[in-house]
Design a protein that fits this description.
Helices cover 33% and strands 17% of the residues. The protein has 14 helices and 18 strands. Helix 1 packs across helix 7 and helix 13 crosses helix 14. The structure holds iron/sulfur cluster. Iron/sulfur cluster (SF4) binds next to helix 13 and helix 14.
Amino acid sequence: MNSHSHAALIIVGHGSTTNPDSSSPTHLHADSIRRRGLFREVACCFWKEEPNMREVYEMVDSDVIYIVPNFISEGYFCQQVLPRELRLDGPTTQRDGKTIHYCDPVGIHPNMTRLLLQRADEVAPHVPREQTSLVIVGHGTSLNENSTKAIQDQVALIRSGHYGFAEVIDAYMEEAPFVKDWATLTTAPNVVVVPFFIADGLHSFQDIPVLLGMREDVGAALSESGVFHQNPHQLQGRSIYYSGAIGTEPLMADVILDQVHDFDAKHQVQNPKGMPNDEVKSSLAYWLNSGLDEIGEILITTQPDGTYSLCHIADRGKDDLQVHHEAHDALFIARSDASGTFRPLHSAPTLNRGWRLDLADLDELRLALDFFYPAAIGMARALEQEKLTTVPLRDLLGRQTGMYRFVNTISDDQAHALIGRTCANTKCLRRILWPLTATQPMAGAAAPKTQPNHAPNAMPLLCIEACTHVVSAARKVARENYEAKEKEKAEAG
Ligand code: SF4
């Protein structure tokens, strides 16, 4: 693969506000690519987790950015949601001096076939293929017909490749052929089921086992259970081998790189030469030298030898902390609170205590801080440079689609009240920078949240766009408005 040492790679995932396993593969593939040193910067962003698709641009300095959707198909998300949220206007977008290349999603790459075969062999070792039905399972949706195409393409490739399976079929959760009909769709004594999903989220781990009859009820999330270790499952006179989602396969990192390589080849991209910026890192160094040593709930200690130590502010001076040594460990420290509950909102004041993170240099420090508080350093720098773009609440609500398309019908008073309520409930440490509209500031219960709230020795945590918690709360209010109107209408006549 060509060197991309001048460029940033951004991997986009779906994420989840409830399931900690949803974003894990995206982070792991990013870490794998980062360690190979092929790109100058590697970052992730998510639809339902932090950093979001507006914030992530503040995490990278590079003037050339490759974006690879860690999605399974070219469907609704890759064709509509991601280009809209990432402000893309085609395969290559020029904006604010940056060149942004939008690659195809991983799931449609031809090399996915290799991964599927490998996964099938791993889950059912020594089981003869000629006595095995391979079932590739997808979601199926009415939102976009392309969502099933990636799976049908893989089925066709494996069938035509004559890999020796008794049969290869596709099946879906929400459209025919249905997963729940697996016993009539297949004929071989062994059935290998591979979910064609990016992560072991709610569908692959909880819903599909129920549809297959392996479980009676939707069970606990992956991290609390072990269904993949119970193969084979004896059901309806057959042996079922159930695999983890294909997206958890470590070789998916290579498919991400393959998509970048294919983009360069297809669009004849010439890699530029010259010195890239290093502005975010420079700002971080400057702030540390100026005496800023806190961010959110974290204390940063600069050691005499130029290394750094991080810990919870409340653990200052303690010497019985569990010591970690890699920036990537921050991802796991920040993942759950003291009770083990998932923390989708990193700026909630629920960071675990009892750890210390020793980091070798400024690069590692910057990476760790982006795991603790995604994009915070970049946003603080952009604010200082008066380059930070915020998204008015009405713009955010107005661009929602699908089940959220009515959220912008809430009144201004309702918007102020729900912001005050939602941000107070989460106890989020960020300061809101966005207005209601381009000409109307946030007011009422939301106004206090727009005021500076960080200590003089701390780097600020900033909010440039309302988060998914606010959009969900707005949907609830919009729905109540609608139901109240319907009730009024019914009573009137
Ligand atoms: S909208 Fe409120 S809760 Fe959400 S990130 Fe911003 S400040 Fe925090």
